[in-house]
Amino acid sequence: MKFSLKLFKWYQKNKRDLPWRETKDPYKIWISEVILQQTRVNQGLPYYLEFLKKYPSLNKLSIAKEEDVLLVWQGLGYYKRAINLLESAKKIVEVNNGIFPNNFNDILKIKGVGDYTASAISSICFGEKEVVIDGNVFRFISRLFGIKRDVKLKSTLLYFKKKLKVLMGNLNPGDFNQALMEFGALQCLPKNPLCCSCIF
């Protein structure tokens, strides 16, 4: 069976029930991705829910006071993330009439957004054929294909992106990316990976 299909079938059966998986709203996906940049899912989840309760839209966030945003963020650490969210929301409202950018290159221009987050948002919300590569993905794909490359090098990132775009095939890019990350997070663990029950 084709890699992408096999992976997707595993994902449908094993994926965690998470609120950001029930939406294609780029604002909500952006918030979830920024929270999860330096935070584990179980720790970040209540913050995500609380943040969206207080700031359910880009426009609502853009008129917030910095001290209020930081208060909601309290305990998550890396407070620059919250400040970047606020500044970016203001800018998107000002420059783009509150409409979230709809492609990888424009999303990448948002303050505090890197390749990974731009790939996640553009693939999940807009179906762009961009692949997400985080530690989970590097680990899983390196092990599966016996790749021994320095993950700190940009050339390695580009190599993995090229390989994964081929492996993605015709599968929906957002689904493919979420399945990839979930497999690394739940199955292909850093220590004691679950090789005995691995579909690959």
- Kindly provide the radius of gyration, computed on alpha-carbon positions and rounded to a whole number of angstroms: 17 Å
> DSSP strand (E) fraction?
under 5%
Structural class comes to mainly alpha
Largest sheet: none
Which parts are unreliable, with pLDDT below 50 for 5 consecutive residues or more? none
Question: What letter string, H or E per element, gives the SSE order?
Answer: HHHHHHHHHHH
Residues in helix, %? 55-70%
Number of strands: 0
Give a summary of the structure in a few sentences.
It is built from 11 helices and no strands. The chain has 200 residues and is mostly helical. The radius of gyration is 17 Å and the shape is globular.
Structural notes for this entry:
With 200 residues, this protein is mostly helical. Helix content is 61%, strand content 0%. The protein is built from eleven helices and no strands. Helix 1 packs across helix 11, helix 2 packs across helix 3 (41-54) and helix 8 (115-126) crosses helix 11 (173-186). The radius of gyration is 17 Å and the shape is globular. The chain starts with a helix and ends in a 14-residue tail after the last helix. The model has no long low-confidence stretch (mean pLDDT 95).
